[in-house]
Amino acid sequence: MSTVREEKGGVKSSKRRPTSPRQVEGRRNVLIHRIENDVHAASIAYALEQRGNRVFQWHTGRYPEDAAVSIAYEGGSYIATFRNRELKFSPSDIDVVWFRRRQLPVAPQTIDARDRAFVTNELRVATQAHNAFFNHAFWINRFETADFCDLKPRQFLLAQERGLSIPITLISNDPDDIKEFLGRTRKCIYKPLIGHVWNEAGRLRKTYTSFISHKQLPADDLLRAAPGIFQKFVDKAYEARVQFFGNFYAGVRIDSSKLEEGHLDWRIGQSAIGACKPVTLPPDVYTKCRQLMNDLGIVSGGFDFIINKKDEWIFLEVNEAGQFFFVEGWCQELPVVDAFCQFIESKDENFVYRPPRRRLTLKEAYLAAKKAGIVP
Predict the structure, then answer these.
(1) What is the spatial distance between Cα 106 and Cα 70, in angstroms, rounded to a whole number?
(2) pLDDT in tens, 179-219
(3) What is the distance between the alpha carbons of residues 231 and 189, in angstroms, rounded to a whole number?
(4) Helix-strand-coil percent breakdown of the chain, rounded to 5?
(5) Of 249, 223, 233, 237, which Cα lies nearest the Cα of 340?
């Protein structure tokens, strides 16, 4: 299962508060990579500021129209300056980078069509290079590990090496191997190596997990064209999404088999999920998850599991992306927002949550940002 959509509505382009308030001792200077209309990122940014942190929000999609970066090298040193319509900062200002959302820049429409590919490539090379100037900071998660983490074949390899159970799986574009696998497993599901969205005449179509049979297979040349993930169907008791911040985790039980839609992929029926119960990881599974995070080079990750009728935890994937606040939305007793703020402030890959007398909730963070005119 891939990323879950969290956002509803958009972020208002209201006037920002000054970006350099007096910093409270022990608090952090936080750079958030985000996209437009990200209500949760804006709410958490405001909450971090109210806790005494200094927050810089970098909207990748605004580069280059409303953002500029200059890097000057002279006399054996350099000066890097990042600017957009709301703020100005240098890499030395930053303690923590939250890589909330990645968005590749594209050439502005003002660029001649013949030059757009060139300009787009220049922008993307520059964007990738910019990240290197923040190597001193604590990243959630580091940009160079994020893409590698999303490679499912690598995840399965490392998960098996750490002793996590995975479904019987074939990743292939060989028609003969695929057909043999379907015949051997009998009941099989298909999922892509990475999710995709098509826009067809204004209608969005997304990739989801689905059953696959011999009759549904396309022609061999199409099978060869794109490798896919084929897995033996696992008869599940329920599913779990478990979000880690360092050593802390918060997990929810998802009774996907009870969903009218989404029994194979709960993302399809997530709008019908009103509330979930918390789950507790078996100690050995917890240890293996932390080991896998270290192998993947991530400090934060959302794990998806199937729990079968024998109460065995079967690993599906780990998602390094920054969408996880829905876990608290579905189970309000879990301190996801409060733990995440502490995690940022700790700068500790082995973070342990310390419950305060009164924790910050997702609802409170959103309502405070709304009252301040930050979100609708």
Answers:
(1) 18
(2) 999 999 889 999 999 888 888 877 878 778 888 988 899 99
(3) 5
(4) 35, 25, 40
(5) 249
d(C-alpha 269, C-alpha 194), whole Å? 20
Number of CB atoms found within 10 A of residue 61's CB: 16
**58: which strand partners?**
33
Neighbours of 76 (CB within 10 A): 5
d(Cα 199, Cα 137) in Å, to the nearest integer? 37
In terms of residues, how long is the chain? 376
The whole-angstrom separation of Cα 178 and Cα 228 is: 9
Using DSSP bridges, classify how beta strands 96-99 and 29-34 pair: parallel, antiparallel or unpaired: parallel
The phi, psi pair for 269, rounded to 5°, reads -105, 20
Take residue 293 and report the two structure tokens written for it.
């995070």
| Assigned token pair, 112 | 């001649």
Measure CA 60 to chain center.
Answer: 16
Q: Determine whether 202 is exposed, middle or buried from the number of CB atoms within 10 Å of its CB (0-12, 13-18, 19+).
A: exposed
Residue with tokens 């022609």: 219
Say which amino acid occupies 259: L
Q: Kindly state the average pLDDT of the residues 265-281.
A: 80
Contact predicate 29/94, CB 8 Å? yes
User: What residue type is 310 in one-letter code?
Assistant: K
CA distance 371 to 130: 34
Give 244's strand partners: 249, 301
Exposed/middle/buried for 369, CB within 10 Å: 0-12, 13-18, 19+? buried
The residue with tokens 């959103």 is: 366
Model confidence at 341, pLDDT cuts 50, 70, 90, reads very high
d(CA 61, CA 35): 6
How far is 191 from 211, CA to CA, in rounded Å?
A: 9
Identify whether the C-beta of residue 20 lies closer than 8 Å to the C-beta of residue 54.
Answer: yes
Q: Are 69 and 75 in contact (CB under 8 A)?
A: no
Q: Are 146 and 131 in contact (CB under 8 A)?
A: no
